[in-house]
Fold each of these.
Amino acid sequence: MSTNRQAAASNPWRAPILFAFLAILFVLEGTVRNSMFSGSWNTALAILNMGLISAITALGVNMQWGYAGLFNVGVVGFLALGGVAPVLVSLQPVEGAWQAGGPRVLFALAVGVGTLALATQVWKRLHRGRTLAMLAVLLVGFVLYRGLFDPAVTAIEANNPARHGNLGGLGLPVLMSWLVGGAFAAAAAWAVGKVALGLRSDYLAIATLGIGEIIVAVLKNEDWLARGVKNVTSIPRPVPYEIDLQQNPEFVEFATRWGFSAAEASGIWVKLCYMLLFLVVLLSIILLAELALKSPWGRMMRAIRDNETAAEAMGKDVTARHLQVFVLGSAVIGIAGAMMITQDGLMAPVSYNPLRYTFLIWVMVIVGGSGNNWGAVLGAVLIWFLWIKAEVWGPELIGLLTSPLPEGGLKEHLLDSSAHMRFIAMGLVLLLVLRFAPRGLVPEN
Amino acid sequence: MDILNALVAFLNFVFIPAAAYGAQLALGALGVTLIYGILRFSNFAHGDTMAFGTAVTILATWGLQAMGVSLGPLPTALLALPFGIAATAAMVLLTDQAVYRFYRVKKSAPIILVMASVGVMFLMNGITRLLIGVDEQRFADGTRFVIDVRTFKAMTGLQEGLALKTTQVLTVVVALLVVWALFWFLNRTKSGKAMRAYSDNEDLALLSGIDPEKVVRMTWIIAASLATIAGVLYGLDKAFKPFNYFQILLPIFAAAIVGGLGNPLGAIAGGFVVAFSEVAITYPWLKVARYLFPGWQPEGLLQLLGTEYKFAVSFVILIAVLLFKPTGLFRGKSV
C-alpha cells in the first residue's frame, strides 16, 4: 500500500458529503416504509448502534493497519476477549462459586503464567543444556497447573450448574468493564505481538488467525469463565430498562406528546441512550487517535510504515513501535467487544464468527480509507448498514434478476441461497476497492 | 499380550488417524508452500479453494452416482476428482488473472497480496455455499472398512480391536502417489526445474529466459490440484462442511511454517508433525496406560488437552517454531 499513499489533493467536501449521505440513509430507514426500508426508528437506531460499535472496532484495526501496516486476522478473538469483561466485572457474584474454587483457579492460572515466565528466563540465562532445562520446567509446570486447575474448575462448575456453574462477576458498574475489556485484549495482543512481530509480515497474520480461533474456543468450552455455550444472560445495563420506562407515567405522557406508543418510545429512548454512550467513546478515541497521529509519535509511526528500512536506519526500534501500536489497536477492539456485550446483555460465544467479526471489519476499514480515522468510521457504519440491509435487498435483487428464468430447480436454488450472496458481495467490494480505490472513500491526508 | 493390546489401541486411535490426517495436511501445506515459493505470499484463500474443489467433486460424484457409475469397493469420488481439479484450476487461474496479476506486475508488498487473498477467500466461500450449501455432506461410498474391529478381534484373539477405514488407506496411498508425482515433476522435468529456479532467484530465472507467467500458471494449476485432492480426501475421511475447511487453514499454515515456507519437503514433514502432535495431545491415553501398567489407577483420562482445543496444538507448534527457528525445520525461504 506504501506506493498508494502519496498525498493527492482530495476534495475537502468529500467526507462531509459522504457522512450526509449516510445520515439520509438512516433517516430513510427510520421514516419510509416500503420494500426497501423498514420505516421504524427502532430498527434504524439498532443498526446505527451496532454500526458505532463496528466503527470503534474499525478504529482499532485502522490503528494497526493504517498507522503501522500490521495485518491482524484475529479481530474476532480480541473482540470476544473484550466481551468477557462485562461478565467478570459487572455480573453479581455467584453464591458459593468463589468459595468452591475461586482462589484455586487464580492460583492455577498464576502457576501457568509463572511457568512460562520461568521457562523464558531459563532459556535466556542458561547456555548449556537449556533446551532440556526449559522442557523440564514446562513439563513440571504443566502437570502442576493441571493438578491445581482441574479440581478447581470441577468444583466451580458443579456449583448450581443449571443456573450458574461459573465464577460470576464482581458486581461493579458495567461501564467499568469497557476499560477492563480493553486491558484483556491488550494483554493477549502483547503476548502474540511479542512472538510474531519482527518476523515476516505474513507471520503476524497467521499467528493472529490462530489466537482468534483459540480465544473463541476457550470461551465456548470453559464453562467456569462465562458458562461457555450455555451463555450468560442478564448482564446489567448502564441505561434504563424499557419495562421501567413504560411503567413511568411521566415517560408515557412524554411519548404520547411526540406521537409514539409507550412501547415504541421506550425502545427508542434506550437506544438513544446507548447511542450517546457509544458516541462519547467513539469521539474520545478519535480525538486521542488524531492527537497521537499529529504528534511526533504519529509522524514516526507513519515514517516506519512507509519505509521500515529508512526508519530503522534513523535509529527507530521498528519492532517495539509495532508492538506498541498493535497492543493499542487491540485494546480499542477489546473496548468495542465489551460495549457490544453490554448492549446485547448476553454473552453467546457461538455467535463469534470470524467472517462476520474479522473480515467484515477489514472490509469496513479498506472501504472507508485505511489510515484515516473518519474514513474507518464512515466505512464501518456504511458497510454495517449495507450488510444488514443486504438481508432484505439481496433476495429482492435476486428475485428481480431471476424473474426471466423459467420456474424450476435453478431459480428456486438461487432464491434459497441469496443469503450466501452477501459473502460474494463483500469479497467483490473488498477486491474492487483494493484494486481501483486503494485509498478508500475518505483518503488519508 | 497386554503390550500387544496397548500397541493395537495406539495404532487404532493414534497412529492410523494421525497418518491419514497428516497426509491431508501435507497435501494442503504443499499447495500453500508452493504458492509462497513462487508468488511470495501466504494464500488465505487456500482453505476455501479446498472447499470449492471438494464441492465440485461432490456434485460430480452425485452426477456419476445418478448415472449408475461406481468404482466397486472404492469411493466414486475418485472418478469425479478430475472434474473437481479442472474446475478448481480454472477458478484459480481466473482469480490470478483478475486479482493477483495486477499486484504482481506492480510489485506490491506481500501483505497486499495476502489481503487480496482474503477477498478471494470471501468470494470462494460464497460460491461454495451457493453450489452446495452450508450443511454437512457425506459422500464416501464403496466399502467402508479394509479391516473392521470384529474381524480383527476374531483374527488375532486380542481384546482390543483395530479398524482400518478404506478412506484412510486411500488417503495415504493417494498422497504418496501425488507427492511422488510432484517431486518427479519438480526435479526431472524442464517446467519443474524452471519453477524451482524461479523460486530460488526470480531475477536470475528471468535472465535465463524463463517465462514468469507460465511458471505462475503452472504453480496455480498444481496448487489447485493439490488443494482439491487434499480437500476431497479430508472430506471422504471425515465429512464435508465448508466452515471446517476455513478452520483447517491454521493447521495447514502451521505445517507449512514448521517445514519452512517455500520448501516442499518441509511441508510434508510439517503436515505429519502437526497431525501427530494434534492427535497425540488430544487423545485420552488411559486405555493404553491400563494395558501397559495394569496396577496403575490414574485419575482422569490422561488427556493432555480436550479435543475442542486441537487448533491450539497447531498454534503452539507455530509459536514454538516462530520463537526458536523462524525459517522452519527445513530452512524455508525467508524470515
Amino acid sequence: MSTLLQQAPSLGNTIWFILAAVVLLAVLLGFVTYAIYFERKVIGWMQLRIGPNRVGPLGLLQTVADVTKLLLKEDTRPLHADKALFTLAPILAYAPAFAVLAVMPFTESIQFADLGIGLLYYIALSGITVLGVITAGWASNNKYSLIGGLRSAAQMISYEVPLVMSVVGIVLMTGSMNLREIVEAQRDVWNIVPQFIGFVVFIVAAQAELNRTPFDLPEAESELVAGYHVEYSGFRFAMFMLAEYVYMFGMGTLITILFLGGWLPIHPALSFIPGIIWFVLKFSLYVFFQFWLRATMPRMRVDQLMSFAWKVLLPVALFNILLTAVVISYQNGMF
Amino acid sequence: MSEEKRRPTPEEKAQAAAEARAKAEALRKLREQEAAGEASQEAASQMGEQGENTAPESPPAPAPAKPVSEMTPEEKAAAKKAAAAEALAKAQAAKAAKDAAQGGDTGEAGADADAKAKAAAAAKAKAAAAAAAKAKAAREAGGDSADAGGEDAKAKAAAAAKAKAAAAAAAKAKGATGAEDSGADAAPKAPSKNQPYLDKYISRLTEAFGAEVLEASYINELAKEVPTLVITNERWHEVAPFLKEDEQLGFDYLSDLHGVDYEDRMEVYYHLYSYKNRQSVAVKVKTSREQSSVPSVMNVWQGANWNERETFDLLGIHFPGHRDLRRILLPDDWVGYPLRKDYVQYDEEV
Amino acid sequence: MNQNILTTQVETSPDTGIRTEEMLLNVGPQHPSTHGVFRLVVKIDGETIREAIPVMGYLHRGTEKLAENLNYTQIIPYTDRMDYVSAMTNNYVLCHAVETMMGLEIPERAQFLRLIAMELNRVASHLVWWGTYLLDIGAMGPFLYAFRDREMILDLFNELCGARMTFNYMRVGGVKWDAPPGWIEKAKDFVQYMKKELPSYHQLVTGNEIFISRIKGIGKFDSKTALDYSLSGVMLRSTGIKWDIRKDEPYCIYDRFEFDVPTATEGDCMARYHLRMAEIEQSLRILEQALDQFPAEGEIIGKVPRVIRPPAGETYVRIESPRGEIGCYIASQGKDKPWRLKFRRPSFTNLQILPKLLEGENLANMIAILGSIDIVLGEVDC
C-alpha cells in the first residue's frame, strides 16, 4: 500500500486508491452498523431491556433497516434555512472523520499512508469537524440547533487543548510523531503505564471531543431536543450519525495506537495471534467502555464542562508534560 | 368607631374596661328604664331584664372603647343599650348551661343572617348614628355579645348569648337568614371546637377595622368546622394584609383561591392557613355578577397570582391590583367565561 | 396560550456597530423535558435566562365545568385524568369532600384499602419522578430501573381495580372493588422487595459526582418564599417547614400508623431529591403496617344513599398527594350534581415559583429546576 504512494500517478494506481478507499468505507460502514447494534444491545442489557431483536436473527439487521429507512425518507429542509450551508454541513462533519483514518496503522502492514507527522495530521483534521457542527447549527435557522452548535464549538475547541497536551508526553518519550513508530516504541511496555496521567486526560477529553456522555451537551436531548442536528432528517441526518460513529472509530483507533500498544500482543509469547486480532480486541474494549459510560452517567452542565477543561484537565496535562520531560531528562543524564 | 380607637394599648383597654364596668353599674337603672321603655324591642328588653336580675354575679363585660364623657347623646344611648346587652350576655352565660348548648347552633343560624352582620357592625361602631333606630337595641345586643365572645374564658357561653340575641335580632329585624345558611334547621348540638378561634378572629378584625368589615361569620360544619368569615368587598384590600401580618392571626399561607357563581352574585373563596398557629380560616368576598371585581391579594400572598388569573379566566372576576391579569388556561381570544352559569359557547364547532 | 408575551430588545453597540438581540426560546409545548404539553417562553442571553414565562392550558379539558353536569360518581373518572401519575389520591380527595359534607361513615376495610392504594400510588409516583428526573439530568438507566419497579405496583393496581393508571377505584362511602384473594400477600411481597431495591437506587445515583454537582445548590428558596408562593408538599418541606397533612390534619386512617415526615433545610434541588427518596421509605413503612393490620373481612362500601345528595353548603378539604396539597372545594345546592367543583392542584400552585427560580439561571439548570418541582400537566391544566 505504501509503495503506491511513491509511484508516479497513473490510471492504474488511481483506481487502486479509489478501491482501497471504498474497501475502507465498506469496513467502516460495517463497523458503524454493528457498533450501533452493539451499543443498543449493551445499553439494553445494562438497563434491563433486551435491545433490538426483531429484524433479522437476533436483531442483527436492525441497523440496516434503520439506515434504509433514513435513506428512503423525504429530504426535508426548513424554509428559511441557509440552503448551501445546510447541505454542506453534514459533509463537513463527515469528511474529516473519514480522512483521519488514512494515517492509522491497523497492523504493521495495513496502513494507507505512513506520515511522519501522523499524530499532528490527525489532530489538525479532526479539528475541522467542529466547523461542520457549527455550520449545521447556524444553517438550520433553529434556536435549539444554534445553541447546540455554539455549545459544541466551545466544547470541542476547549477539549482539543488538553487532548493535544496529553499526547505530548508520548511524543516526548517516543521522539516521533509517526504513529507506527509510537506503536513500535511500546514493545516493552505500553504507554498506558508510564503515561497513565496522560491516558486519563486523553480518555476524558476524547469523550468530550466525541460529544458523548457525560459530555453530550451539544445534543443534550433534555435541554436542546437534539442540538445541532435538530432540523436534519433522512440521509443528511444519517451523515451526521455516520460522522459520529466514524469519529468514534477514529478515536478508538488512536487510543489503541497511542496507549494500548496498537497491534502488539499483550505478551510476546502470544504473538502467534495475528496483530489485527489484538488491535480489534483493544479497540473493542474502548468502544465498550464508551457504551458503558453512556448507560451510567448523567450529563454535565455546560459551565461545569468548560471549567473542568480549563481548570482541571489542562493543568493536569501540563503537569504530565513537565513530569515526562523531567523523567526523560533524568534518564538522559541531564541531572 | 373612630380611627384612633382601632388599636388600643393594653393599658388603655384595661382602663376602658374599668370605666365601662363603672358605667355599666351606674347606668343600670337608667338602662332598665330605657330598655323597658322600648316596647318594640321585645327580645332585647326581655333579655335585658334577665341581665338585670343576674348582672351583679356576672363577670365584667368588655368595654366600649370610648369613655362616656366623650360620647354624643346618641352615642350614649347606644352605649347604654350595648352595656345592657353585655350584661345580659354575661348573665346568661352564668345562668344557663342549657341555653348555651342550644345557643351554639342557633348562633350559627343567626350569624349567617345578613341582619346579624349588620347588627354586629352597628353595635361595634358605637357612633353608628345612622343605624335604624328601631332595631338598634337588638342589634347592639347581638354585636356586643360577639365582642364578649372574644374573652377566652367565657367564649362558649358568650356565643350562646350572642346566638340568642342575634337570633332574636334576626327574627325581629329581618326575619330571614341568608340563602347559604345551612345550619338553620339542624338539630341543636354542642358548639364547635373551632368556635373560640372564630371568636378570636372576629374580635381581632373588629378591633382593627370595626365590625362593618364582617358581613357574616360562622362555623362551616360541612368543611370540617372551618371558621368562615365573609368580608366586605370594599375593605378586603385592607383586611387581607392584616390577616397575614397580625401576630395573633398570622395567616401566612394561601391554600386555595377560587370563585363561585351563585347566579345572583359572585363569591371568591379563600382558604388560608397559619403555620404558626396551625389554624385555618375560610374567607369569602362577594361581588356583583355584572361588574365583578375583588381586590387582588397577589401582593399579600404571591401564591394568589395564578389562582386569580384562573378565576379571571374562567369566571371573569377582575382583580384590581393584579400585575399580570391575563387568561391562563384558555386561549387569549376566547369569548366568555365558561364557569359562569349563563355561559354560552361562542363557537359550537370548538 | 399567548403569542407575544415577551419582547426582546435590540441593541447596537456604538463602538463596533454590532447588533445584538436577546433571544426568545420556546421550550415546549413539545419538548422532551417539560413532562407534557407545557410551554416555557424564555428570554435568553447566551445560555443565561433573563426572564421566563410559563404558558399552559394545552391540556385544559374543563374538568370543573364538566363536573357541574355530572353526578358525583360520574366525576370520579375525571379526577383520574388530572394527576394521572397518582390518580388514587385524586379519587380520594373528591370522595373525601363529598363524605365530609354528608358525614358518612367509611367501613374499616374500605379505609385500609384506600390507604394502601394511596400509599402504593405515592411510591409509584415518586418512582416515576425519580426516573424522569434522572432522564432530565441526562442519565437514561435509572428511568428503566424505576419503571421496572413501578410496573409491579401497576400490576397490583391492575388486579385490584382493573386499570393501571386511570383507576376509578374509590366511591363515595368506600371503594368499588375488594382486594382479590392473595392480593395483600402480593403487596407485602412488593413492599419487602422495594425495601431491598431502594438502596441500589442510591448506589446508582445518589453519590454520583456529576449528579450532585448538577443539582446541589440549584433552585434554592427559603421557607418564607415557599409560604408566600403557596408551595406545598416536598417543595415546602425542603425549606424546613414540617408539614404533612397526613400527620397534621389526619384524614383516612393515617393517624393510626407510625411514620416520619422527612424535612430538609437547604431548599435546593438536592434537598427535594433526598426528600422524595425518603418519602418512598416512609410510604413503605406505612404500607408495611397497614398490610399487617388489614382486617380479614368487612364491608368495602358504607351505607350510602342511592342518589348522593350532599346538603346545601360548601366544603373544602385538602389531603397530601405525592406532589403536595391537593384540595377539593364543592359548593352544593342539595342536588345530586355539584353547583361548583374546584380542585386545588398542587402542580399548578407549585409551578408558580418557576419564573422566580429561573431568573439568572442557565438553560441546563432550567431543566433541573423544572424537574425538581415535579409537575404533572394533566393536573396543571385540569
